[in-house]
Amino acid sequence: MNWRAKKVLVTGAGGFIGSHLSEELANRGASVRALVHYNSLNRWGHLESLPKETLRRIRVVAGDVTDPACVREAVHGCDIVFHLAALIAIPYSYAAPSSYAQTNVLGTLNVLDACRLAKAAKLVHTSTSEVYGTARYTPIDEEHPLQGQSPYSASKIGADQLALSFHRSFGLPVAVIRPFNAFGPRQSARAVLPTILSQLLSGYEELSLGSLSPVRDFSYVSDTVAGFLAVAASPKSVGEVINIGSGRGITVGEAAQAAMRVVGRKARIRKETARLRPPRSEVLRLIASNAKARRLLGWKPSVRFEDGLRLTARHIAGHLDDYKAGLYNV
User: Which of 116, 178, 198, 314 has the fewest CB atoms below 10 angstroms from its CB?
Assistant: First the structure.
């Protein structure tokens, strides 16, 4: 796709994946409108860490996806909409489930309706591998049952189904991208790899972690962004759900050992009770089948886990002040 001819909107542009996607789209010449969550300090999240010459090519607008008028204004005039805005922290979803329903379900409904009214050429809606729950079989393909094991995952199941219903009911050209555990520079310590790396790089002799046994499919953020672009570009993705993942399973404990090798120092691991999910809510195993992405999009992962971990460690080492390594970041 020639992105120079495209006007695009990225919701959730101030977040981890959203900022990388906005950056890549701007570098490819797209006219990027970046919707960030309104705040009185006019902070733009991770967009503020972009090179100034890149940020100058992005039009940042502040708003809230739970407000229909705000969303309609943001969508107006855009060819392609990437919807990433969401509440994503699983532990916080136990404390504030209503907020997750409002942002993730109602917010998605507002984006869908705005795209329908504006006759957008394509909407790429962001799902999550958490909707699968603990794998009943691996690798997990797109036909795997959906299991809401947390308020977060339940809200995303609802949002995904709304997106697909707008395609079936109104002919809206929607594609659902389902990333597995993306990681890389700018990711917060809410996620497990920055949690491990920030403690190691801060010199901690003992790491405070949750369960070490869950298996995750870690995908470096540049591969995830490439997946978003491929989904947007392909007419074959309309009406489809497409996994984006490496196809390799790594336990949290194995990830911690790999991080120690990358950083070059050992540390003890302490299981902290506060970091454990309720037993029936913990997702024990997530490993993606990326066969559909390979077949429909020609997408495949290109960054090895160990290489991505080195790049992530390098970034965190240069931004340690941004991480509260001694706290449990929910």
Answer: 314
Side chain identity, residue 49:
S
* Residue with token string 């497990």: 192
Q: How far apart are CA 35 and CA 9, in angstroms?
A: 7
Please check the confidence at residue 264 and state whether its pLDDT lies above 90: yes
Q: Could you state, in order of their start, the residue ranges of all structural domains in the chain?
A: 3-182+219-244, 188-216+249-285+304-322
Structural tokens at position 14: 């101030």
Q: How far apart are CA 204 and CA 265, in angstroms?
A: 10
Strand (E) positions, 168-222? Answer: 174-179, 182-183, 206-209, 215-216, 219-220
Q: Which of 32, 41, 37 is nearest to 15 (CA)?
A: 37
Q: What is the pTM of this model?
A: 0.97
| Residue 68, H or E segment | helix 68-75
Strand partners, 11: 35, 83
Alpha-carbon distance 203 to 266, whole Å?
10
- Alpha-carbon gap, residue 128 to 135, rounded angstroms: 14
- How would DSSP label each residue in 86-103? ----HHHHHH-HHHHIII
How is domain 3-182+219-244 classified at the CATH fold level?
A: Rossmann fold (3.40.50)
SS3 36: strand
Number of Cβ within a 10 Å radius of residue 302 = 11
Q: What is the pLDDT of residues 210-238, one digit of tens each?
A: 999 999 999 999 999 999 999 999 999 99
CATH number given to 188-216+249-285+304-322: 3.90.25.10
